[in-house]
Design goal:
- The chain has about 220 residues and is of the alpha/beta class.
- It has 10 helices and 6 strands.
- Strand 3, helix 3 and strand 4 form a beta-alpha-beta unit.
- Helix 2 runs parallel beside helix 3, helix 7 crosses helix 9 and helix 8 crosses helix 9.
Length: about 220
Protein backbone atom coordinates (compact mmCIF):
# COMPACT_ATOMS: atom_id res chain seq x y z
CA UNK A 1 0.00 0.00 0.00
CA UNK A 2 1.30 3.46 -0.97
CA UNK A 3 0.41 6.08 1.64
CA UNK A 4 -0.14 9.48 0.02
CA UNK A 5 -0.74 12.94 1.53
CA UNK A 6 -2.45 15.80 -0.33
CA UNK A 7 -1.77 19.52 0.17
CA UNK A 8 -3.98 21.97 -1.73
CA UNK A 9 -5.91 25.01 -0.53
CA UNK A 10 -9.05 24.02 -2.46
CA UNK A 11 -11.08 21.35 -0.68
CA UNK A 12 -12.96 20.32 -3.82
CA UNK A 13 -9.64 19.78 -5.65
CA UNK A 14 -8.32 17.61 -2.82
CA UNK A 15 -11.55 15.61 -2.80
CA UNK A 16 -11.29 15.00 -6.55
CA UNK A 17 -7.65 13.94 -6.35
CA UNK A 18 -8.38 11.62 -3.43
CA UNK A 19 -11.15 9.91 -5.38
CA UNK A 20 -8.86 9.47 -8.39
CA UNK A 21 -5.98 8.04 -6.34
CA UNK A 22 -8.01 5.77 -4.08
CA UNK A 23 -9.75 4.25 -7.07
CA UNK A 24 -6.48 2.31 -7.25
CA UNK A 25 -6.46 -0.33 -4.47
CA UNK A 26 -2.69 0.11 -4.03
CA UNK A 27 -2.98 3.79 -3.02
CA UNK A 28 -4.37 5.26 0.20
CA UNK A 29 -4.62 8.96 1.18
CA UNK A 30 -3.66 9.21 4.87
CA UNK A 31 -4.14 12.96 5.39
CA UNK A 32 -4.88 16.28 3.72
CA UNK A 33 -3.71 19.86 4.32
CA UNK A 34 -4.96 23.22 3.05
CA UNK A 35 -1.83 25.38 3.50
CA UNK A 36 1.94 25.13 3.76
CA UNK A 37 2.51 25.37 7.52
CA UNK A 38 -0.18 22.76 8.16
CA UNK A 39 1.50 20.50 5.62
CA UNK A 40 4.83 20.66 7.46
CA UNK A 41 3.16 20.02 10.82
CA UNK A 42 1.21 16.99 9.60
CA UNK A 43 4.23 15.66 7.69
CA UNK A 44 6.32 15.69 10.87
CA UNK A 45 3.68 13.68 12.74
CA UNK A 46 2.82 11.23 9.97
CA UNK A 47 5.20 10.99 7.01
CA UNK A 48 3.58 9.66 3.83
CA UNK A 49 5.32 7.64 1.16
CA UNK A 50 4.50 10.36 -1.37
CA UNK A 51 3.42 13.97 -0.82
CA UNK A 52 1.36 15.62 -3.57
CA UNK A 53 1.54 19.38 -3.08
CA UNK A 54 0.10 22.34 -4.97
CA UNK A 55 2.54 25.14 -5.81
CA UNK A 56 0.33 28.04 -4.73
CA UNK A 57 -0.91 27.74 -1.14
CA UNK A 58 -1.43 30.21 1.73
CA UNK A 59 1.23 30.92 4.38
CA UNK A 60 3.88 28.76 2.70
CA UNK A 61 3.73 27.79 -0.96
CA UNK A 62 4.42 24.33 -2.34
CA UNK A 63 7.88 25.25 -3.57
CA UNK A 64 8.93 26.36 -0.08
CA UNK A 65 7.39 23.25 1.46
CA UNK A 66 9.39 21.15 -0.97
CA UNK A 67 12.61 23.05 -0.26
CA UNK A 68 12.22 22.68 3.51
CA UNK A 69 11.33 18.99 3.46
CA UNK A 70 14.05 18.07 0.96
CA UNK A 71 16.68 19.99 2.94
CA UNK A 72 15.75 17.93 6.01
CA UNK A 73 15.63 14.61 4.18
CA UNK A 74 16.43 14.29 0.45
CA UNK A 75 14.74 10.88 0.42
CA UNK A 76 11.29 12.45 0.84
CA UNK A 77 9.11 11.81 -2.25
CA UNK A 78 7.27 14.91 -3.52
CA UNK A 79 5.10 15.51 -6.59
CA UNK A 80 4.22 19.08 -7.53
CA UNK A 81 0.63 19.49 -8.74
CA UNK A 82 -0.37 22.74 -10.39
CA UNK A 83 -2.09 24.64 -13.19
CA UNK A 84 1.25 26.25 -14.06
CA UNK A 85 3.27 24.96 -17.00
CA UNK A 86 5.67 27.95 -17.04
CA UNK A 87 9.33 27.01 -17.26
CA UNK A 88 10.16 29.17 -14.22
CA UNK A 89 7.91 27.11 -11.95
CA UNK A 90 9.09 23.83 -13.40
CA UNK A 91 12.79 24.61 -13.09
CA UNK A 92 12.37 26.02 -9.58
CA UNK A 93 10.60 22.82 -8.56
CA UNK A 94 13.52 20.82 -9.95
CA UNK A 95 16.04 22.99 -8.12
CA UNK A 96 14.20 22.35 -4.87
CA UNK A 97 14.26 18.60 -5.48
CA UNK A 98 10.72 17.71 -6.63
CA UNK A 99 10.44 14.11 -7.81
CA UNK A 100 7.51 14.77 -10.11
CA UNK A 101 5.55 17.60 -11.72
CA UNK A 102 1.96 17.16 -12.90
CA UNK A 103 -0.63 19.57 -14.26
CA UNK A 104 -4.10 19.52 -12.69
CA UNK A 105 -5.68 18.39 -15.94
CA UNK A 106 -3.65 15.15 -15.82
CA UNK A 107 -5.84 12.09 -16.38
CA UNK A 108 -6.36 9.36 -13.77
CA UNK A 109 -4.08 6.80 -15.38
CA UNK A 110 -1.14 9.19 -15.59
CA UNK A 111 -1.72 10.47 -12.05
CA UNK A 112 -1.61 6.99 -10.54
CA UNK A 113 1.36 6.05 -12.71
CA UNK A 114 3.25 9.13 -11.46
CA UNK A 115 2.60 8.26 -7.81
CA UNK A 116 3.80 4.68 -8.28
CA UNK A 117 6.92 5.70 -10.20
CA UNK A 118 7.93 8.32 -7.64
CA UNK A 119 7.24 5.86 -4.82
CA UNK A 120 9.60 3.42 -6.56
CA UNK A 121 12.40 5.97 -6.58
CA UNK A 122 11.97 7.29 -10.12
CA UNK A 123 11.20 10.77 -11.42
CA UNK A 124 7.99 11.56 -13.28
CA UNK A 125 7.24 14.59 -15.43
CA UNK A 126 4.37 14.73 -17.91
CA UNK A 127 5.20 15.10 -21.60
CA UNK A 128 4.95 18.90 -21.82
CA UNK A 129 7.00 19.29 -18.64
CA UNK A 130 9.70 16.94 -19.93
CA UNK A 131 10.00 19.06 -23.07
CA UNK A 132 10.63 22.18 -20.97
CA UNK A 133 13.33 20.41 -18.98
CA UNK A 134 15.03 19.11 -22.13
CA UNK A 135 14.93 22.54 -23.77
CA UNK A 136 16.53 24.08 -20.69
CA UNK A 137 19.27 21.48 -20.72
CA UNK A 138 19.90 21.98 -24.43
CA UNK A 139 20.14 25.74 -23.97
CA UNK A 140 22.29 25.78 -20.84
CA UNK A 141 23.88 22.34 -20.56
CA UNK A 142 22.20 21.95 -17.17
CA UNK A 143 19.14 22.95 -15.21
CA UNK A 144 19.77 26.58 -14.12
CA UNK A 145 20.98 27.06 -10.57
CA UNK A 146 18.72 28.81 -8.08
CA UNK A 147 20.76 32.00 -8.33
CA UNK A 148 20.28 32.08 -12.09
CA UNK A 149 16.51 31.65 -12.06
CA UNK A 150 14.87 34.39 -14.18
CA UNK A 151 12.14 34.86 -11.62
CA UNK A 152 14.10 37.08 -9.24
CA UNK A 153 12.72 40.35 -7.91
CA UNK A 154 15.82 42.21 -9.13
CA UNK A 155 14.67 41.55 -12.70
CA UNK A 156 10.94 41.68 -12.15
CA UNK A 157 9.42 43.48 -9.18
CA UNK A 158 6.11 41.70 -9.57
CA UNK A 159 7.62 38.22 -9.95
CA UNK A 160 5.78 37.60 -13.22
CA UNK A 161 6.82 34.45 -15.03
CA UNK A 162 7.64 34.41 -18.73
CA UNK A 163 4.20 32.97 -19.59
CA UNK A 164 2.44 35.52 -17.36
CA UNK A 165 4.26 38.34 -19.15
CA UNK A 166 3.16 36.94 -22.50
CA UNK A 167 -0.44 36.71 -21.36
CA UNK A 168 -0.40 40.17 -19.78
CA UNK A 169 0.82 41.62 -23.06
CA UNK A 170 -2.06 39.96 -24.91
CA UNK A 171 -4.57 41.13 -22.29
CA UNK A 172 -3.26 44.68 -22.69
CA UNK A 173 -3.73 44.35 -26.45
CA UNK A 174 -7.37 43.36 -25.92
CA UNK A 175 -7.06 39.68 -26.82
CA UNK A 176 -9.81 37.50 -25.29
CA UNK A 177 -9.22 34.52 -23.02
CA UNK A 178 -10.46 32.21 -25.78
CA UNK A 179 -7.98 33.64 -28.28
CA UNK A 180 -5.15 33.47 -25.74
CA UNK A 181 -5.98 29.84 -25.00
CA UNK A 182 -5.80 29.06 -28.72
CA UNK A 183 -2.49 30.93 -29.02
CA UNK A 184 -0.82 28.79 -26.34
CA UNK A 185 -2.89 25.66 -27.02
CA UNK A 186 -4.12 25.64 -23.41
CA UNK A 187 -7.58 25.43 -21.89
CA UNK A 188 -9.52 28.60 -21.13
CA UNK A 189 -9.49 27.56 -17.47
CA UNK A 190 -5.69 27.55 -17.48
CA UNK A 191 -5.61 31.04 -19.02
CA UNK A 192 -8.13 32.28 -16.45
CA UNK A 193 -5.87 30.94 -13.69
CA UNK A 194 -2.89 32.79 -15.16
CA UNK A 195 -5.00 35.94 -15.42
CA UNK A 196 -6.06 35.64 -11.76
CA UNK A 197 -2.43 35.18 -10.68
CA UNK A 198 -1.31 38.20 -12.72
CA UNK A 199 -3.94 40.42 -11.09
CA UNK A 200 -3.02 39.09 -7.66
CA UNK A 201 0.69 39.80 -8.19
CA UNK A 202 -0.03 43.31 -9.47
CA UNK A 203 -2.49 43.86 -6.58
CA UNK A 204 -5.44 44.92 -8.74
CA UNK A 205 -9.10 43.89 -8.50
CA UNK A 206 -10.33 44.18 -12.06
CA UNK A 207 -9.21 44.56 -15.66
CA UNK A 208 -9.58 48.36 -15.58
CA UNK A 209 -7.18 48.66 -12.65
CA UNK A 210 -4.83 46.22 -14.35
CA UNK A 211 -4.65 48.22 -17.59
CA UNK A 212 -4.21 51.51 -15.72
CA UNK A 213 -1.34 50.05 -13.68
CA UNK A 214 0.36 48.66 -16.79
CA UNK A 215 0.19 52.10 -18.42
CA UNK A 216 1.07 54.09 -15.29
CA UNK A 217 4.17 52.06 -14.48
CA UNK A 218 5.25 51.49 -18.08
CA UNK A 219 5.09 47.72 -17.63
CA UNK A 220 4.22 47.19 -21.28
CA UNK A 221 7.83 48.09 -22.15
CA UNK A 222 9.04 45.18 -20.01
CA UNK A 223 6.81 42.59 -21.68
Amino acid sequence: MINVALADDHEIVRHGIKMVLEDDPEIHVIWEASEGEETLEKFEKNQPDVLVVDIRMPLLNGLEVTRKLKSQDPRVKIIMLTMHDDSEYILKALQYGADGYLLKDTNKAEFNKAVKMVYSGNKYFSGDISTTIINSYMANGHVPSETATPNQASENDYQLTKREKQILKLIYEGVSNKEISETFNKSIRTIETHRFNIMKKLDVNNITELLKKVEREGLINQL
